[in-house]
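Key result, reporting period 2: structure in, sequence out.
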């Protein structure tokens, strides 16, 4: 059986086969390196783990009176491209400022639920920093609860 070199070309023209550039992850109708395509494929993150503070959050009187140590982890989806090129702190999210704001929000007012605390943090981060999405994890490290030897916590993810 003979091979027909024009067969593939005819199939591509009729739309039956994708152009070869599509095999490299290219979207149909887009040129190589389109800026909007590159941004959609990036997955840059600034994260902080184990930001600690002492607070009086909780439902029971013991939790509100005695208090406990809390730990917060955050992950902010941001475009780190400008900072990777410029090496300038002004072109990225300053994680020192993020940590200070986390402690500030968590120690200003008392809440009953970790869910409320995590939601407030997510709202603050989306409002004050140039991020597309945030993930917030809040854990109560030393809950004054008899028999509880695990670390309770919640995690929320919010998008713009």
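The corresponding designed sequence is given below.
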């Amino acid at each position: 059986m003979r091979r027909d070199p024009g067969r593939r070309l005819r199939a591509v023209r009729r739309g039956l086969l994708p152009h070869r550039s599509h095999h490299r992850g290219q979207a149909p109708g887009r040129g190589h390196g389109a800026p909007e395509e590159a941004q959609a494929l990036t997955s840059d993150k600034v994260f902080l783990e184990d930001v600690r503070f002492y607070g009086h959050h909780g439902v029971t009187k013991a939790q509100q009176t005695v208090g406990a140590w809390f730990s917060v982890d955050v992950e902010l989806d941001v475009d780190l491209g400008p900072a990777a090129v410029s090496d300038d702190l002004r072109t990225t999210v300053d994680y020192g400022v993020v940590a200070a704001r986390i402690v500030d929000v968590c120690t200003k007012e008392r809440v009953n639920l970790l869910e409320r605390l995590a939601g407030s943090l997510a709202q603050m981060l989306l409002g004050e920093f140039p991020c597309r999405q945030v993930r917030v994890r809040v854990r109560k490290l030393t809950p004054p609860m008899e028999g509880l030897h695990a670390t309770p916590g919640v995690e929320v993810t919010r998008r713009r």
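The beta strands are 45-55, 68-77, 133-140, 153-159. Residues 114-128 form the longest helix (15 residues). This case is discussed further under Risks and Mitigation.
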